[in-house]
Every structure is written in C-alpha cells, then in structure tokens.
Amino acid sequence: MFLSIPARALRVGLIQALGGMDRSSESVRAISAQERAVLVQALRLGGSPNVDPIPPEQLDSLQVLGICPCGCASVDFLETEPDQAAEVVAHAIGETPSGEPVDILVFAYNGVLTDMEIIGYSSTPAPLPVPATVRGWDGQRTSCAT
User: Fold this and answer.
1) Scanning 8, 19, 48, 63, which has the fewest C-beta atoms within 10 Å of its C-beta?
2) Per the confidence metrics, is the pTM higher than 0.85?
3) 95: left (phi over 0), alpha (psi -120 to 50) or beta
4) In the chain, where are the structural domains located?
C-alpha cells in the first residue's frame, strides 16, 4: 500500500518545526554511490505500478539539494513549492548496517524525483540501509526504474 500525500505533508510539517531542510551550499552535492544504490533498489523493488519508469539519465544526474536536520539519511533532490504535491513513486524497506529496519519512501513531482525519505523506528536518526537488504514493502516485485 502506498502512502498518500498527507503522509508527506506530515513529514514536511515536522521538518519545518525542526527548522527546514539544510540547503546550505555545503549540503549541495552529487548523490553518493550508496544513496544511488538504495534509490535504484527502492524504485526497482518497491516502485508503484501506476507510475511511469524513472529514466536512468535522471538517476545519473541527481544532485542532493538538502539533508534532513534530524540527522537521518533523508535527502531532497528538488525543491518544490507547497502547492506542488509530490507523489510516492516507491515504498520499500531495508535494514541498516546494525540490522535496524527502515522504510524508504521515494517521491516525485511530474515524473521528476524530489526526495528520498529514510524512516527509522528507533530513538536515533536512521542511516541509509544496506542496498542489498532493500526489498518491496509488500513483498511484490514491481518496478519504477528502467
């Protein structure tokens, strides 16, 4: 089951309460190899069947524009306006290096990736999962990546 936009609105409200995503010039960078591997796996194994595939060239040119102020591994790829409702294009799960389960939500607006959320359930901010542990949230093998 894919989360609705209110789930993202809740997250946006939390980030605003924390002071917003860090979009300082130091946080703008190319997507890391591990972030890209997690993103590709999430799109491949947890992609929504109702979403057009994300072209590989979009993945190759992704820039991280913001990082979450809580310290988790969530990243923004595109700044959207409040009235631009991004949709969940993938929902996957994985495990961190310490074995902690995490949810991975990937959002896009008009076919352009906007952010990847890493949601942990412990008292510490969630790091990226190990790419090899990423699997579809509901066990289905759907694909949103080409």
Assistant:
1) 19
2) no
3) beta
4) 5-14+31-136
